[in-house]
Amino acid sequence: MKLTAVEYGIFPDIEQYNMHFHAGSNKLRFLIDTSLDTSLLGQSKELDLSLFNPFFATLSFHQCGCGKHHAHNEHGYAFEAADSIVSLSEKVDIAHYMEHMVLDLQFQLGIKTKISGVTVKHEGSAVEFETYVECDDIHLGIFSMNIVLAMMHQALYCGVIDPRYHTVLEIARWLRTRDRSSITISEVTKAFNIDGALMHFCFNTLNVFHYPLESVSVLCAATPQTTGPILIIEDNDLYRELLSDALSDLGYQTMTAADGRTGLEMLCNYNAGIVLLDVYLPDTDGVSIAKWILESQPSTAVVLMSGKIDMEEGATFSNDAVRFIPKPFSIAHLKTVLQATYA
Question: What is this structure's pTM?
Fold first, then answer.
C-alpha cells in the first residue's frame, strides 16, 4: 500500500460528486494504491474499525451518501453514495475511510468549517483510488494524510496502531494553541509529563510527517536524543541471542524476534528506538520491513545486516534513513554504527 500522487488545487470537475463541496474550494487530491505486500501481511483478515476510534473523535459524525449518483463517466466510479462504512473488507472502503480520517484530523487541528471529501476509483485500476478532501491549509492536509497512511499501514499489517500516536496528536493540537516562537522543551515536558524517549518520538514524527509549524524542527533538534530499546529481528537463534547478550553487555536494552511478522507486531506494541534487521528472513525480506518502518514509524531507525552482500569488512553503507552493516561484523564495529545511528 502506498501513496502515488499528491496535488493541491480547485479541481472543479470533481465537485459534481458531492453536493456539500463548497464551490471553487481548494482540495487536496491524493492517489492511493491499496495493493498489499503479501509477504508482510501474513494471514489476511478484516480490519477492525474500532482500532481507529480512539484517534479520530469525529468519525461517528461523518455522513456518507451525500454524493450525486453517477454510475460511470470518464473519471471512474463514484463510491461516496454508500450510506456508511461498516467494515474495511473492500479496498474502496479502506480508501474511503482514509478520506474520513484526513477530514477528521483537519477538524481536530483547527479547521472548524464544515469540509467534505469524495473517493473515486482511479480509471483503469482495481486497486488505485483518488481521494479529494477540502483543505484550507495544504501543509496541515499533507500532515494529516501522512499520519493516516502510517496508521492504516500499521492496522493492515499488524492489527494494532502504535499508541504513541495518541501523544503525537495531543501535542499537535496543543502546539496549535501556543505562540509558535516561544515554545520550549520544558514547557512541553510540563504539559504532558513525558520522558525523553517519547518526546523524541513525538517531535521526530511531527517533523518527518511535515507538521506545519517551524518550531517543530527546532524542538526536534532540542529534544534529548534518547530512544527505546533495540529490536533484533534475526531468524538464526544463536546469532540472535549472541547479539542480544553482546548489546546488553554494552548497556543497551534489547528485544528479539525470530521472523518478520513477529517483529512487525512488536514494533506496534513496544517502544523500539532502533531495529537491527536481517535482510533474509523466513517469512519476508528485511528490505520490505525497512520500507514499512519508514512509512509507518519513521522515528524508528533501521540498521540492515546481511552476510550475502559483498562489502569490505568494517564497511558500512548508509543513507538518510537506513544503515547497512555486512556480516560478519565485530561488536566494536556494531557499537560504532549504533552510536552513529543514535546521534
Answer: 0.84
